Amino acid sequence: MTIRNLAARGLVDTAAAGTQETGRRALAFVLDRSFLHPFKVLIYSLARTGSFLDLPILVFTQDKVVHDDPIVTALADRRIHVTDEQIRQFSVVSRERIRRKDRRSWIAKYTFLKWLIFDDHDVDEMLFIDADILCLQNADGIFDEPRGRDLGVCPRMRPSLYRTDEDTRRPAAEVTALMAGMVRGEFPKDHVSMNSGVMILANRCLDAGFRERLLELASQKSLPNEQAYLTELFASDENYDARFLPSKYNFTSTSLSKMPAPDQVSLLAQVAFLHFTGGKKPWTWPLTSQSPLGHMLWRRFEADAVKNSALIPRQRSWIAARLSERFSG
Questions:
Q1: Residue 284: strand, helix, or coil
Q2: Which GO molecular function terms does the record list (predicted)?
Q3: How far apart are CA 179 and CA 44, in angstroms?
């Protein structure tokens, strides 16, 4: 199935877009039940922006609730069940090396499961997107961006974009200029770490040997999270080639909130993927008049998805219905 096929079944409407040349490409997602609802909002946003409508979809999960979900079943060309044996390979990652707030009882950190996409899936390129992301405009152009032979990924947006070395607030105009530069692919020198929320995998990254190299590194070195190991491996092994994509394809809501309100609105018109990193997710955090613009925007997409698609049962989201009324007019 594809997003376009969901539309053909009357589950969601899509923006007008011609049939795309997909080549040997695929979309990939890694989910558990806690991200199932935002995943459906993400799919709605991809449909409404006409993004990746014809790409086959792979869903990786260890969670039976996700595996058996009717929307996931209708959407995914392949539902890849993560086995206990696959999970055991992550035992080399010491729980003591992971920040306490990020630990899980059965695995060092849930997002390490993301490493299962590093394998041969019978495609030439795979686009991975985290479920805590919203698509704001057509993102098909990501495949036209220059990128590394093995990986295209955006940099992790650092606090230095809005704070100085002396830990003082940067002038508003300077913050806006730096953020706009990130969107265009102009990165400050200290932006060298990867944010693995959006990745284009190719060549060596679509091989189990790459995951084995990551696991070997994780068994030897203490780093805070899975994307830190990814950054370290590409920095230390010249056999692998990665290149940063413009941050329009992975712009964090936290960084957006550091800008003056009018500039946030202007910048969002240039952003394809808005990423809700951190612990305060818009679907779990109460919405108030003081909520960040990004959170309000996510709730608007959720309300539209409930009202205008069959992806999310109406009875599940009474708050979305109320928001639809609030934002109408």
A1: coil
A2: glycosyltransferase activity
A3: 27
**Cβ atoms of 14 and 3 closer than 8 Å:** yes
Tell me, rounded to whole angstroms, the distance of Cα 176 from its chain centroid: 23
Contact 198, 135 (CB under 8 A): no
For 217-257, the DSSP string reads: HHHH---SSHHHHHHHHHHH-TTS-EEEPPGGGSEEHHHHT
Q: Is the dihedral of CA 138, 140, 141, 146 positive or negative?
A: positive
Question: Residue 19 in 3-state DSSP?
Answer: coil
In terms of DSSP H, where are the helices of 139-287? 172-184, 208-220, 226-236, 253-256, 261-268
- What is the rounded radius of gyration, in angstroms, for the C-alpha atoms of the chain? 19
Distance between start and end Cα atoms, the chain: 36
Q: What gap in Å lies between CA 168 and CA 125, rounded to an integer?
A: 42
Locate tokens 């959407």: which residue? 75
Q: pLDDT 10s per residue in the chain (329 long)?
A: 799 988 888 888 887 665 566 779 999 999 999 999 999 999 999 999 999 999 999 999 999 999 999 999 999 999 999 998 888 888 887 655 566 665 554 344 456 889 999 999 999 999 999 999 999 999 999 999 999 999 999 999 999 999 999 989 999 999 999 999 999 999 999 999 999 999 999 999 999 999 999 999 988 888 878 899 999 999 999 999 999 999 999 999 999 999 999 999 999 999 999 999 988 899 998 888 889 999 999 999 999 999 999 998 765 444 444 444 444 43
Q: Is domain 3-156+193-245 classified as CATH 3.90.550.10?
A: yes
* CB atoms inside a 10 Å sphere around CB 27: 24
Length of the chain: 329
The CA-CA-CA angle for residues 18, 268, 144, to 5°, reads 40
The residue extents of the domains of the chain are 3-156+193-245
The tokens describing 264, both together, are: 């946030």
What 8-state DSSP symbol labels residue 142? Answer: G
